[in-house]
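Limitations

Structures in this collection are predictions, not experimental determinations, and the ligand pose is part of the prediction. Treat each record accordingly. The example that follows, with magnesium ion as the small molecule, is included so readers can see exactly what is and is not provided: the inputs are given verbatim, and the output is the predicted complex.
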Amino acid sequence: MDIVLISEDPAFSERLGAILDKQPGFAVTRCDASLARMNGKATDLAKVSELIVFKATPDAQDETEALRALIAAGGNARILAVSDSSIPFGVAHSLLRAGVSEIVPDTIEDAELAKVVNRLAKPRRLTLISQDQSEGHVIVISKARGGIGATTLAVNLADQLCGKKKRFGKSETRKVILVDLDLQFGAVAGFLDLQSNDALYSMARDRIEPDSVFLQQSIVTTPSGLSVLTAPDGFMPLNALQPDQVRFLINRLRQMYDYVVIDLPPAMVDWLTPVLEAADHLLIVSGTSVPFVQQTRRLIDFFKDQNPSLRIEVVVGQEKKPLIRSRRQTEAAKALQTEFKHWLPHDPKSAEDAMDRGRPLSETASRSPLTKEIAQIATDLLKLIGTKANNKTASADRLGR
Ligand SMILES: Nc1ncnc2c1ncn2[C@@H]1O[C@H](COP(=O)(O)OP(=O)(O)OP(=O)(O)O)[C@@H](O)[C@H]1O
Ligand SMILES: [Mg+2]
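Predicted complex:
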């Protein structure tokens, strides 16, 4: 088990080093610098380690920036902060938000600290399965500009994630809910020929934290078995929902469903924070022209700032995947530090026909390239998330931070 110990305080390094050296099977590397002043080699080491232990200083801004950079650089290490009593609550909170798994005070007994280290250093699969029995995955759809096809992707991705019942043999269905949080211009109900209801509006108006009875009354289901929480029919101010209500809503839905797919509004509102904190994957539907790239860059920076461990993918909307990429496409991918894996071909006939009939593409144009590409996105996401068993490990990864 590789552990990296980061601190510029020699007394702290001595004490922690002594505790860690006593644990069988631990290889400890000491780094005599603060987290914010680590050199490249130490950063590389930290990336491949299982556990990073660091001394948290009151100088939080530098620490959290450094942490975010470390997490963004990849790696799978858990992070333990040992703080002195001068760390204010707000600083501790921002460390946790930046990805620290646990913070313990430096007054902790040696034996207690050894226990914490042992617990955090265990492979995640073993530690976390029991903690995270039934947490669905949250997939969020955003867009770089209106009309690019984000709702088309949200609706049909949710449909594909449901899986299909096989006539013979085992069915491969999953419990999926599509939530239309584009509160003012949400179109999901129309896409699926569903009656929209005012659940989200009454939630906001009455300051309700939705319990399962409220949700059961508010969720509608399509004939193919997809559950939907629609945007309200009438006008509702975008900021009428409170962040805590949205956090509560998503947590509830994650307990009830395997997958929660959320269609976001184009605006920045304060309740996006809980959505992004809960999200496992975020897909931004965008294009390859310069204004698209600029807007997408802004969105990625904002989303990453809210949740550094979020997996973000840019899906190219209304463009067929080229055999050979043009210079513009290559430049766009470079600017966004992505490889554009999925391209939704321009296919107005299939898209509009499905919309007019209020059915998902899988029922109206199952062979169209657009349907196949969305099915591929679903397959790739499922692969990434893993089977039901791995599913728990994947969300444990998130919890484990
Ligand atoms: N791949 C596609 N090819 C051609 N037309 C498409 C495609 N995807 C969606 N459309 C059409 O573009 C229009 C906008 O689609 P959609 O509502 O999915 O976009 P959006 O990004 O969610 O827009 P909004 O800003 O209104 O939320 C619809 O008429 C839809 O049928
Ligand atoms: Mg939309």
